[in-house]
Amino acid sequence: QVVLVESGGGLVQAGGSLRLSCAASGRTFSSLSMGWFRQAPGKEREFVAAIYRSGTSTSYADSAKGRFTISRDVAKNTVYLQMNNLNPEDTADYYCAAVGAALTAWTVRRRLGYDYWGQGTQVTVSS
C-alpha cells in the first residue's frame, strides 16, 4: 500500500507561483510512476503532469506546458509540481497519484492508469 500526502496549496494572485509537494511512503519510491491531476468545482478530474518511474521522462497537459514543471527527489521520496504564471483557471484541488508500473502513452493521462491517490491540496488563484 502506498500512501501519498500532498502539501503546498494555498491562495495566490494571478501571475504568481506555487510549489506542490507529494510525499510517498509504503513502497520503493523509484519503482513508482507519479502524476498530478486536478479537479475544479463542477468539473471532471483532469491530468496535469506525470513523471515516469525512470525519472527521466515527463508528460504534461497542454494547459501546463511551459508553466508547470514536475520533478522528483528520490532521497526524499517526494514529487513536486512547480507552478508558475498561475491564472484563475488553475484554481482546483490538486491530487497526487502513483502506480507501481510503467506508464504508457495511453495510461499516463487517465485516472485508471494510477492505483494510489492522495487526498488533495487546494489551489486558489485570484484575479
Short description:
The protein is mostly beta strands. The protein has strands at 3-7, 10-13, 18-25, 33-39, 46-51, 58-60, 68-73, 78-83, 92-99, 116-117, 121-126. The protein contains no helices and 11 strands.
Would you give an account of this structure?
This protein has 127 residues and is mainly beta. Helices cover 0% and strands 48% of the residues. The chain has strands at 3-7, 10-13, 18-25, 33-39, 46-51, 58-60, 68-73, 78-83, 92-99, 116-117, 121-126. Strands 2, 4, 5, 6, 9, 10 and 11 form a seven-stranded mixed sheet that branches. The radius of gyration is 13 Å and the shape is globular. The termini are far apart.
Taking the sheet with the most strands, its summary is: 7 strands, mixed
Gyration radius, rounded? 13 Å
Strand content: over 45%
List the secondary-structure elements in sequence, H or E.
EEEEEEEEEEE
Indicate the low-confidence ranges by residue numbers. none
Number of strands: 11
Topology, element by element:
Blueprint: E1 3-7, E2 10-13, E3 18-25, E4 33-39, E5 46-51, E6 58-60, E7 68-73, E8 78-83, E9 92-99, E10 116-117, E11 121-126
Parallel strand pairs: 2-11
Antiparallel strand pairs: 1-3, 3-8, 4-5, 4-9, 5-6, 7-8, 9-10, 9-11
Question: What key attributes describe this structure?
Answer:
single chain, 127 residues, mainly beta, four-stranded antiparallel beta sheet, 11 strands
